[in-house]
């Protein structure tokens, strides 16, 4: 993860950020506080006086990656502070790396700072110290994303107890941020040049349930701390707003009309994009997962969403090879793919996670069977994706440019979230004078299983 560099003299901290976008936001907050406190952020182990590693601990591969990153920092620098989700398992970290300086859990910004103070004591400057050094909840601070998009975290924790997940044991129950604070942060991001907001949490559709949907005021108007009201407020900013990690509650239906509405520029008030992790399609497997299991109703809802907003993009993730999954139940999952015709899909072969209730379920699926099912699943979805993208050839798509690569501009359409979905390669992007953060209408000339290819039309 590239980090902002600092060239001023001072105490120097290296930083390694691992894990999901929610962990990335934690890293941004810690880095901002470090900068506020007068520490310099450096890019290499050799330049650092201490290294902070923000870890992930959700699945076994993430634990391994985190432990390896800690080990590398120890070998290259020797002074390491560990934070993040894996910090909830300090004994596992100490067993592998007994000499780390300190271990803190996720979202524990103050403990991270205290550990940095212990390793690199703050210096006293009688002039600077007259100014309070703190990071306010609504300040934007350092961002690790490109300037034109940002993650907007609206809550922490989760009230669900899905049998394959240990997030609640790491990040706790749902704690929603007040809606006015979220909207003020979004407004500041917009003023700072952000063009796209990616709304994230552990469970976006549960937003506000813990505070009984408390009402707050922003721009002279009252908003409930509720997903629909938040989306209505965000739609006033004129940005691309993309919803992630939406649990399929019935009230999700309420935001689809907002995706179909257009602003004064003719663009959707809320991006017609919905990231809902359905996880499976077999009612029995979903029950074992402790997930909603009314698959027929799910298919009906998807069709209803498309009737209201024909341009909607539906992304989802699934788990194959869950304990007890039979051949017939896997076939049910493939049939669901055929019927649902989802636009973007990710999948994982089930992997036991230490502390997850699913570990105790009978009839584990052999690893070779899991991998074979995963390959069949992804091949089936690739056919669907290829056909859906081919239907876009000849259309004009509004895109947001992420990068320039030689003659190409690498962009994303409304249907593409950064890093997890496809791309739009604009063949004449350099010739058209495009730069990162530009919006542009692209005529689509071709497609494959994942990406679109097009050109900026020029007037004759």
Features:
single chain; alpha/beta; 20 strands; 21% strand; disordered N terminus
Provide a descriptive summary of the structure in words.
It is a single chain. 31% of the residues lie in helices and 21% in strands. It contains 12 helices and 20 strands. The chain has a 5-stranded parallel beta sheet with strand order 2-1-3-4-5, with helices on both faces. Strand 1, helix 1 (21-36) and strand 2 (40-42) form a beta-alpha-beta unit.
Shape: globular
Q: Biggest sheet, strands in spatial order?
A: 2-1-3-4-5
Q: Which residue ranges are poorly predicted, with pLDDT under 50 across at least 5 consecutive positions? A: 1-9, 126-138
Rg value = 23 Å
Strand content: 15-25%
Query: End-to-end span in angstroms?
Result: 43 Å
The assigned structural class equals alpha/beta
Mean pLDDT, to the nearest integer, reads 90
Tally the helices: what do you get?
12
Instruction: Profile the largest sheet.
Output: 5 strands, parallel
Number of strands: 20
The portion of residues assigned to helices is 25-40%
């Amino acid at each position: 993860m590239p980090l902002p560099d600092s060239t001023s003299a001072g105490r120097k901290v290296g930083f390694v950020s691992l894990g999901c976008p929610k962990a990335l936001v934690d890293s941004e907050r810690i880095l901002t506080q470090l900068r506020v406190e007068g520490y310099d952020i450096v890019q290499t182990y050799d330049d650092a006086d201490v290294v902070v590693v923000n870890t992930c601990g959700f699945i076994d591969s993430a634990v391994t990656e985190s432990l390896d990153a800690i080990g590398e920092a120890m070998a290259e620098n020797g002074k390491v502070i560990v934070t993040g989700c894996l910090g909830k398992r300090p004994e596992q970290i100490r067993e592998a790396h007994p000499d780390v300086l300190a271990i803190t859990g996720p979202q524990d910004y103050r403990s991270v700072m205290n550990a940095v103070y212990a390793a690199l004591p703050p210096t006293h400057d009688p002039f600077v110290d007259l100014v309070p050094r703190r990071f306010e909840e609504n300040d934007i601070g350092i961002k690790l994303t490109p300037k034109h998009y940002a993650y907007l975290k609206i809550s922490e924790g989760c009230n669900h107890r899905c049998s394959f997940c240990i997030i609640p044991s790491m990040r706790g129950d749902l704690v929603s941020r007040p809606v006015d604070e979220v909207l003020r942060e979004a407004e500041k991001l917009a003023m700072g040049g952000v063009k796209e907001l990616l709304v994230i949490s552990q469970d976006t559709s549960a937003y506000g349930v813990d505070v009984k949907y408390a009402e707050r005021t922003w721009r002279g108007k009252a908003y409930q701390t509720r997903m629909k009201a938040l989306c209505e407020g965000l739609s006033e900013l004129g940005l691309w707003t993309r919803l992630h990690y939406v649990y399929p509650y019935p009230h999700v239906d309420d935001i689809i009309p907002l995706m179909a509405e257009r602003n004064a520029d003719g663009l959707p008030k809320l991006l017609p994009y919905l990231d809902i992790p359905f996880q499976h399609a077999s009612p029995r497997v979903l029950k074992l997962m402790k997930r909603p299991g009314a698959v027929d109703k799910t298919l009906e809802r998807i069709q209803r969403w498309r009737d209201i907003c024909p341009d909607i993009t539906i992304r989802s993730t699934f788990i194959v090879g869950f304990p007890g999954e039979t051949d017939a139940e896997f076939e049910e999952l493939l049939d669901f793919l055929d019927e649902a015709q989802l636009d973007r899909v990710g999948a994982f072969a089930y992997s036991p996670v230490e502390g997850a209730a699913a570990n105790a379920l009978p009839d584990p699926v052999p690893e070779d069977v899991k991998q074979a099912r995963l390959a069949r699943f992804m091949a089936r979805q690739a056919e669907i994706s290829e056909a859906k993208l081919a239907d876009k050839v000849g259309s004009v798509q509004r895109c947001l440019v992420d990068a320039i690569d030689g003659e190409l501009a690498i962009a994303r359409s409304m249907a593409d979230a950064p890093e997890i979905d496809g791309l739009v390669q604009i063949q004449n992007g350099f010739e058209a004078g495009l730069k990162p953060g530009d919006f542009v209408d692209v005529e689509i000339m071709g497609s494959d299983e994942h990406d679109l290819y097009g050109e900026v039309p020029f007037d004759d």
